[in-house]
Amino acid sequence: MKPFRFAVQASNTLSAKDWKLLAGKVESLGYSTLFLPDHFGDQLSPLVGLTIAAENTTNLNVGSLVFDNDYRHPLVLAREIATLDNLTGGRVEFGVGAGWMTSDYDESGIVLDEPKVRVERLKEAIEIFLELFEKGSSNFKGNHYQLTDAKCFPKPVSQPHPKILIGGGSKNILELAAGKADIVGLNASLKAGVIGAEMMKEISPDKFDRRFAILKEFAGKRFDDIEIQCLTFLVQVVPNGAEVRENIAKMFSIETGDLDEIPMALIGSKNEIVEMLHKRRERWGYSYIVVHEPEMEAFSEIVAELT
After folding, report:
1. How far apart are CA 43 and CA 12, in angstroms?
2. Looking at the 3D structure of the chain, how many domains does it have?
3. Are 7 and 32 in contact (CB under 8 A)?
4. Dist. CA 29–CA 298, nearest whole Å
5. Backbone phi, then psi, for 267, in 5-degree steps?
6. Distances (CA, A) of 179 to 16, 85, 140, 172, 183
7. What's the pLDDT band for 146 if we cut at 50, 70, 90?
8. pLDDT over 80 at 202, yes or no
9. Which of 21, 104, 185, 226 has the fewest other C-beta atoms within 10 Å?
10. Is it true that the peptide bond before 92 is cis, omega within 30 degrees of 0?
11. CA 22 to CA 28: how far, in whole Å?
12. If we measure between CA atoms, which residue out of 100, 116, 113, 136 comes closest to residue 176?
């Protein structure tokens, strides 16, 4: 089993002073990575925000959960990531996905193709990223992208490339992640394009058992090299965990026992959460846990306990 490490996902700090202070606090609390999402709402643009965060820290990794492949041509994004990795001394975790949030596509006018097409496009983009990072150039002829003598300068410092992070819950995405990713976000499937009632159907523990089995099957011999990440959404460090879990379970019309096991929820005392994380690492391989900015200070006692 992989050792635990932890990250913070942030998006709402908009002033330069506060963003720099936040990056420093994330590092000082013992988290390994600061992530920004990649959406068109009220948030910092990820590439610029991550650059500033890295500049104001010493060892903190930076990345996005995740860059939407449809928003940028892979040659453009590869050069940006390689430059950031080069100038930070190799502190980039390169999260990239096929896109899913309907409102982003509505707002931008970018066509939201069916999932199969978006995943095929992402597969081609991943091949391009790897060629550019490892060889410094690419001649690629695919159904979605055609590159001729494309160059990536500067080359990334990380060898053989910045860590590739792919997250998702569908079989197609898990197959791609199993073959290409260094970090896999084993997540719920977001077919509906929004976080809501449809997502609730996808978060039962047995469905995560199935996703884990698919990932392990497709990964084969490289499974032991993969770090499995969980992005959480319900995190509360409280002394009365059982009572809080029962109330939340009623709100979402799910069984309390299921809530105790749902990977995206961590509710309880420090000792209870530590025990949950050990069990989830054993069951699903989760060793890389991401919490959101509002929970990071309270959760830092778990970070200190497990890292």
Report:
1. 6
2. 1
3. yes
4. 10
5. -130, 120
6. 39, 23, 19, 11, 11
7. very high
8. no
9. 21
10. no
11. 10
12. 116
Predicted local confidence at residue 250, as pLDDT: 86
Closest to 62 measured CA to CA, from 31, 40, 39, 41:
31
12 vs 67, residue with greater confidence: 67
Q: Per-residue pLDDT for 192 more than 50?
A: no
Per-residue pLDDT, 200: 60
* In-domain check, residue 144: no
**Structural domain boundaries, residue 287:** 5-77+168-306
User: What's the pLDDT at 196?
Assistant: 52
- Asked whether residue 53 is assigned to any structural domain, the reply reads yes
pLDDT reading at 19 higher than 90: yes
Confidence bin at 31 (pLDDT 50/70/90): very high
Amino acid at 219: A
Upper half-sphere CA count for residue 49 (Cβ side, 13 Å)? 24
Give pLDDT, residue 13.
75
CATH number at residue 201: 3.20.20.30
Q: Is the pLDDT of residue 87 over 50?
A: yes
Question: How far, in Å, CA of 277 to CA of 263, rounded?
Answer: 9
Q: Is residue 99 part of a domain?
A: no
Evaluate whether residue 28 is within a structural domain. yes
